[in-house]
């Protein structure tokens, strides 16, 4: 087991940002500047082609840390951010660009590549969670949530299915193909986001993935608009969801 | 034009409750006890078989008045609450009970009866809104929202389609049959609630009504559960929706 090594620290507006590594995997942990008490932890998965400090990540983290007093951790997915790409990564990225340039659907490439990335990322997330729970401000028995859309859902669904420490999750914006069977094993409360006019993910496909979760408590938020037009107020909604389920307001 | 007559007034926990009539139609207006300034107005339509002071109405009104400083008005629908039933009302209610007792779908009766009630209720709501806007705390140019589920949607959709004063609305829990064509004329921001396992309204029917709205800004909230299991946090979500669109936080 790798322990967590902090590599940088800064602080601003009530939020402490600490870069870390767990083995080869770089991550970032945002925490309330004020807090010494234990607080819930939200793991966030970034989208394809971005990284752990992408604006969507820092924006959501800020809301969760300052609004709820939670810790938030993001790690770079394999081949993303500060991590090297394998030859396989390069091939799949080239295939995606070719599909886009040809005006072909990108779904088949994205689904295939994300499935591969999830196989690499799930054990990394589990090792990261082990290491984070060694920190005194987090601890081994505190509530843990997961929040990831797009590729963050492709990784988060199989992670949540095998990881009983995660007790509430926000997913969305993904095809069901490689995920629906796994989603049927998930029973924790879920909030799921879908774009009603998504130009990449057919409406029926998004609805099918939401439908697959076995959770008794699950909520679909479908908004008019294209794939990248998820309204900003959905980030606030996700924060309220975690506040309800992880136990702080 | 009938003016508004107040018939009773009480006050509790920062909320002033005033019963009123506009012509033959009885209603209730809830307002912030503190406010002399003009504030936005939310019209709320109650569900079938209930009335203007049903707990769902008083609960939502309390959130809107104390949380946002809004006025909230509800009127008894035709044949409901303090209003007499016509012979036609009695026939339709008997038909509904017969369908339920026989284990037949209640949709056809509810859709037919609600369509009839909406024809009677829309002009009553317009006269009520005229009269409410004469009050100095509301005024003729302030923002107006509409919030109604079930029968409140059956009445609210045709009302909103003909009433340009309504600029944001929350609907849901209804069949599309008599409403989808009218919904296509509506372009204001909409939040729409649907129960994913509704035993009366088929999932596809609920989704079809949401789809019909021409609004560029529309959000579907679909929750796991039966028709009457709409989670209580959706009332808070509706309040935030109105706070965003009617202009106060």
UniProtKB/TrEMBL annotation, chains A, B:
Database matches in Gene3D superfamilies: alpha/beta hydrolase
Superkingdom per UniProt: Bacteria
Official protein name in the record: Alpha/beta hydrolase
Source species: Streptomyces brasiliensis
Classification lineage: Bacteria, Bacillati, Actinomycetota, Actinomycetes, Kitasatosporales
């Amino acid at each position: 087991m790798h322990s967590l090594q902090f590599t940088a620290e800064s602080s601003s507006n009530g939020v402490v940002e600490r870069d870390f590594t767990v083995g080869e995997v770089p991550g970032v942990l945002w925490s309330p500047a004020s807090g010494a008490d234990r607080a819930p932890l939200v793991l966030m998965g970034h989208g394809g082609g971005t990284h752990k400090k992408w604006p969507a990540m820092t924006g959501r983290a800020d809301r969760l840390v300052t609004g709820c007093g939670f810790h938030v951790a993001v790690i770079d997915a394999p081949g993303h951010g500060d991590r090297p790409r394998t030859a396989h990564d390069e091939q799949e990225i080239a295939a995606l660009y070719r599909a886009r340039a040809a005006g072909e659907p990108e779904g088949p490439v994205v689904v295939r590549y994300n499935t591969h990335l999830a196989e690499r990322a799930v054990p990394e997330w589990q090792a990261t969670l082990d290491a984070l729970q060694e920190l005194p401000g987090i601890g081994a028995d505190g509530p843990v949530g997961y929040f990831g859309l797009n590729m963050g859902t492709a990784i988060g669904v199989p992670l949540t299915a095998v990881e009983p420490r995660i007790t509430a999750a926000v997913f969305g914006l993904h095809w069901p193909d490689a995920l629906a069977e796994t989603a049927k094993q998930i029973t924790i409360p879920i909030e799921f986001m879908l774009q009603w006019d998504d130009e990449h993910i057919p409406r029926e496909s998004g609805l099918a993935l939401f439908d697959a979760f076995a959770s008794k408590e699950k909520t679909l938020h479908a908004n008019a608009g294209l794939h990248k037009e998820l309204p900003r107020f959905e980030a606030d909604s996700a924060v309220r969801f975690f506040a309800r389920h992880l136990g702080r307001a």
